[in-house]
Design a protein that fits this description.
Blueprint (H helix, E strand, L loop, with lengths): L3 E4 L12 H8 L3 H10 L7 H9 L3 E5 L22
Antiparallel strand pairs: 1-2
């Protein structure tokens, strides 16, 4: 189940849609992390208003469901017995 979240300071709606790079810059994260936020449903879209609310929120609180853990990716295949490829 995806979480239902409540942001601390909602902002007035804006009509523009941001690129993933613009959203990443505003949120202070990588483009890959923005993709993961979108895939998890934590960030429902790239509308400027939604991204800005998340960027300006001093705290994000889960109101229902489980907060997703954003992983950096699948673990690499082992390169030698007993070791990982990291």
């Amino acid at each position: 189940m995806l979480p239902t979240i409540e942001l601390a300071r909602p902002e007035a709606a804006q009509s523009s849609v941001l690129s993933r790079g613009e959203a990443a810059s505003l949120l202070g994260v990588s483009v890959n992390t923005v993709s993961k936020l979108l895939e998890s449903g934590f960030l429902p879209g790239l509308e400027a208003s939604g991204v800005m609310v998340l960027a300006r929120a001093p705290q994000v609180r889960v109101t229902e469901g489980v907060l997703p853990v954003l992983r950096t990716g699948a673990p690499a295949a082992p390169t030698r017995e007993g070791t990982t490829g990291r």
